[in-house]
Amino acid sequence: MGRKGSKKNAGFHGGASTENQSGGGVPKKFAKDKTSSVPQASYVRKQVDPETAKYFSEISNVIEGAEIDLEERSVICGNALEEARGKEVELATDYIISHTMQTLLEGCSVEHLCAFLRGCAKNFCRISMDRSGSHVAETALKSLARHLEDDENHSLIEETLSTLCQAIVVNPVDIMCNCYGSHVLRRLLCLCKGDPVDSSEFHSIKPSVVLAERLNLRSTQLDGHESQQNPPFPDQLKFLISEMLNPSRADIAILQVNQYSSLVLQTALKLLAGKEEELFRLVPLLLGCHTDNALEGNFLEVTAGKKILRLVEENAYSHLMEVILAVAPDTLYNEIFTKVFNNSLFRMSSHPSANFVVQALISHARNQEHIKLIYEELGSRLKSLVELGRSGVVAALVAASQRLEIHEQKCCKALADAVCLTNEPSACIVPRILFLDNYFSAVDKANWNWPSGVKMHVLGSLMLQSIFRFPSEFIQAYITSITSLEEDQILEASKDPAGVRVIEAFLTSNASAKQKRKLVSKLRGHFGELSVLPSGSFTVEKCFSASNLSLRETIVSELLPVQTELSKTKQGPYLLKKLDVESFAKRPDHWRSRQTSKESAYKEFYAAFGPMDTKSSRSENFLSDTHHKSMEKLKGMRKEIDARLSTGYSSKSGSPFLAHQGSGGPKKTGNKQVPEGREFPRDVGYDSFQSKSKRHKVEKTSISSKNNNDGETLHGDKSSSIKNEKKRRRKDGLSNSLDKKLKAGISD
């Protein structure tokens, strides 16, 4: 099991967190030891006696050498653990036998597992801080987590955890600051919360994930905690966290700057996300403040603010501060922002470690007022930040402006001005951002050209992805720039992992259909080679959606020669079905007719349900100029039209596709079960639709016959249902002409 701490990466910084305060209301069941922490003496590892070593060697051969049923294996493992009583430390810290101990703990019953942990509780810290013993301790906790689903084991596990927590808080600093012990402690915290053993709170989050969260490209992992159920062992979690930060036991100043204790505190904070009462006690302690002031809403003094500014320049504390900013209640965040970082943002942004804290501060801004203050200080210095290599701060500001819808035009213009002088054409904007480091490291920037074959800049790509989520009126310079790229440049960008994201972001933006088609047309002759690339199928699909009938026909015709190769790729079969390539190969006229019917249905549907403030390009392509939010709302409706044109009316009711919106449950196709809302609906041929219609007629005949025998009740219910359906359709605005076009698309 690897032992890794959080590491920084270009443009982002791993999270950090802080822990709970001392006066947290410790449960009476826990006996508090009032003695202050005393550093543990170094231990001399005792060797395992030869007889015991031989016994466990034989046990290892038995349980690893032959096939044994689970029940017999559990008995053998339990008996072996009983033989380990009183020798847990020696066995767990032995390099060879520790592996056998891990196997035993994985295979034994919960009773033997808990007995082992309680037996070694007094030495649990010693085992956890050992290179081999830490693996044994973690294995025991992971095995314990697997028994949480059985309610019968709850009281037994609770008692075991209470025993371990009491042993740890006697001297928490040593285990928190130990490179091995911190891993075990984080595992224990997650177990008390009931989080999975491979929880993101335990493992260091990938740089790309943190960066995506900060730039609004995915929801933050901390958001889900607020809606989670209460932890299975709340008393143990609260006790362990509060006692770890009890000033009488722990020196907070040491914990703030130690890289391993920082990881423990990060985990604790994330597990408490959404628990405002706990955070109001915990966060002030980690900021070096008194909690009494926090209750009054004034816990930060000027001197404390200056100290925090010095601390965030430390690697460990900067990680910690990032998580504090992510989980802090709004009032705490606001006070940290105004009393610590306001008017110091540029200086902090220039620092190698503190700049990541500024990124977190911007990304977690609570309201527009925060962004206004941030922009006042940094808006005119974006070029300086990029030149200093702090493009992550710039990217965070652009994304936060888009998220909170404030200073959108100013941010877009400031970024453009940072890479392009006033007298230079706007065509240079996108290339320079795509190759951000290459451009700013060039000696002769005036004669800089597109560097063919050079990998595109990840943060530059993320900035442009954020830019193309702004309303089109704010990003015309960027739209002009990307549509001005040469054919070979667009092709190179489409093959680059960072560049292709920008192309896709532009194609899904609310730029006009004409501008999108201008870019798509420059990829003529290359759709086949793009489609077989790992991410190329997504690009080709977006090109298809943004095209008119002529361009769509070109795209599909270029996929025909690579159809066999494409079908063997991961996304290829879905793309072939989505674009209906097989139908085009067999009956091109039928394919064109269906595409025309779809487009006509989209336009009328748009006219009925589209936003009222959008006036341009309704004649160009469905939703080409709508606001991004409206596009998201109507995306599902558009998929419904696609599915209805492919599958026909429902075999159960014969009603239009809108009648089945929101119907839950999976749909069956043949012997396979297709999940509801699948992105690529299964096409059903005309013959299949006819057979469904015949079955429907049979059903109607059967119902009619039953009505003749059983009275008019069923007939009356069905008539009422039909009337209600018609009223609902009129209310939703689905016109008869649209219904006819849907039928026409099917019959074609």
TrEMBL record:
Keywords: Repeat, RNA-binding, Translation regulation
Oxidoreductase among keywords: no
Ranges occupied by Pumilio repeats: 339-376
GO MF annotation, one: RNA binding
A Pfam family the protein falls into: PUF_NOP9
Any one GO BP annotation for this protein: endonucleolytic cleavage in ITS1 to separate SSU-rRNA from 5.8S rRNA and LSU-rRNA from tricistronic rRNA transcript (SSU-rRNA, 5.8S rRNA, LSU-rRNA)
Organism superkingdom: Eukaryota
Keyword RNA-binding found: yes
Family annotation (InterPro entries): ARM-like (IPR011989), ARM-type_fold (IPR016024), NOP9 (IPR040000), Pumilio_RNA-bd_rpt (IPR001313)
One Gene Ontology cellular component annotation held by this UniProt entry: preribosome, small subunit precursor
Name this protein carries in UniProt: Pumilio homolog 23 isoform X2
Recorded name of the encoding gene: LOC105157885
